[in-house]
Every structure is written in structure tokens, then in C-alpha cells.
Specification:
Radius of gyration: 17 Å
Shape: globular
Number of helices: 10
CATH topology of the largest domain: Rossmann fold
Number of domains: 2
CATH superfamily of the largest domain: HAD superfamily/HAD-like
CATH architecture of the largest domain: 3-Layer(aba) Sandwich
Structural class: alpha/beta
Order of helices and strands: EHHHHHEHEHEHEHEH
Helix content: 40-55%
CATH class of the largest domain: Alpha Beta
Distance between the termini: 9 Å
Length: 220
């Protein structure tokens, strides 16, 4: 049985794909956006390269750099017409962590206006005293700046922090920040990519998080 080597007092989450089930919306948005530039992508190609860093996605699919600003505008247009629900079980997990007295935060590469709107829509604004978005950092994932900012806000240390995400960049950011890392498998990132990036633990569903961090009453 895997055992947690430290006491967790703070849990930081990625948003897209981890708590918010935005994988389908992201896939559809990238497909629509890139199609406008004559680039067709499949679900399998998306799974093989997906990262929260849009520009890395553009580069991976061969979109010329000069087209990136226009692609950003079209991406936001297409995404704005879509809505995403919470990942199944995410709401209850967040409620359980709050009830246990843990400090919670979100560290995401998403746009603040959009993430704040989605948090409010799902009634989660008060759940996360620390929300660090794309506009709040100068260095994006996998650089650890976002996690460090969130820990400053919550006045906690990396030693007692866990970061939960669904992409290799999330895991690499957590490792660089010196926090415990939990990778959540999804259908939009090949599992082999998560297995290869060195997460402390890989879980199949967000509902398994309380057990992964040895939350009291989780059966550990």
C-alpha cells in the first residue's frame, strides 16, 4: 500500500480537466480554431500533445507563429460559446476537503475572467481563497511560480502542500515547487504521458484524492 510521507494541510488544484470537465470543450475549440487556418486535428493527436500552454499546442500542430494572436482571438470566441460542468465527484471532494479544514487553492493557466466566471457558476468561489491564473504569473507551467504565489496567499509551505493536475506540465510544476504531486487520469491525455512524468501518485478519478492524501476517514 502506498503511504503519504508528509501531512497535507493545503491542496492546490489545476482547474481545466482536473475539477472542471473542460476537456471536450478544449478539444472542440482547438479543432474549430485550427480548422480556420487549414489544420485538421484528431482526438488522438490532441491526446498525444495536450498541454495547458496554448502556444505549445499551436507549435505542435504547425501553426505559424505570425498567426498565433489571431488564433488566440478565435480560440476565445469558440470557447465562449461552450459551457463545461464539473468533473464527476469534484464538488463532493472539494466539500470534503473544506470540511476537514484544509486550505484550498487553484493554480491554472486559464484566463482569470473565464475561470472566475466558471467558479462562480459552480458555487465554488468561496472554496478557494487562492486562485492564481495566467495573468498572475510571469512564467507559466511547468515553472513553479504559480504554486509559490498560491502558497504565499495561503501562508503555508511546500512541505505540507499537494498539487493535483491532469497533465504532465501540472506534475512537473508541482515537482519543481517541491510539493506532493497527484496526477488524475482523464480521457484527454494519454495515461502513458502521466506515468512517465514522475507524479508521486496517479489516480484514476478525482474521488480517489482523499485516500491519496490520507485524509482522515478515507480508509487509509
Amino acid at each position: 500500500m502506498w503511504l503519504l510521507p508528509r501531512t497535507v494541510t493545503t491542496v492546490l488544484f489545476d482547474w481545466d480537466g482536473t475539477l472542471c470537465d473542460s476537456g471536450a470543450a478544449h478539444l472542440a475549440t482547438f479543432q474549430k480554431t485550427l480548422a480556420e487556418f487549414g489544420i485538421a486535428i484528431t482526438r488522438e493527436q490532441f491526446q498525444a500533445v495536450y498541454t495547458p500552454a496554448w502556444y505549445h499546442m499551436y507549435e505542435a500542430f504547425g501553426l505559424p507563429r505570425a498567426e498565433w494572436p489571431q488564433a488566440d482571438r478565435r480560440w476565445m470566441f469558440h470557447y465562449g460559446n461552450l459551457t463545461s460542468e464539473l468533473v464527476m465527484g469534484a464538488g463532493s471532494v472539494v466539500a470534503r476537503l473544506r470540511a476537514a479544514g484544509l486550505h484550498l487553492g487553484v493554480v491554472t493557466g486559464g484566463n482569470r475572467e473565464r475561470v472566475a466566471r466558471e467558479l462562480a457558476r459552480h458555487g465554488l468561489t468561496a472554496a478557494f481563497p487562492a486562485v492564481v491564473c495566467h495573468e498572475d504569473v510571469t512564467r507559466t507551467k511547468p515553472h513553479p511560480e504559480g504554486i509559490r504565489k498560491a502558497l504565499e496567499i495561503l501562508e503555508d509551505s511546500a512541505r505540507h502542500c499537494c498539487y493535483v493536475g491532469d497533465t504532465p506540465d501540472d506534475v512537473l510544476m508541482g515537482r519543481a515547487a517541491g510539493v506532493f504531486t497527484v496526477a488524475v487520469a482523464t480521457e484527454y491525455v494519454h495515461r502513458s504521458r502521466l506515468e512517465a512524468c514522475g507524479a508521486d501518485v496517479l489516480i484514476d478519478r478525482i474521488e480517489h484524492l482523499p485516500t491519496a492524501i490520507a485524509l482522515p476517514g478515507s480508509g487509509t
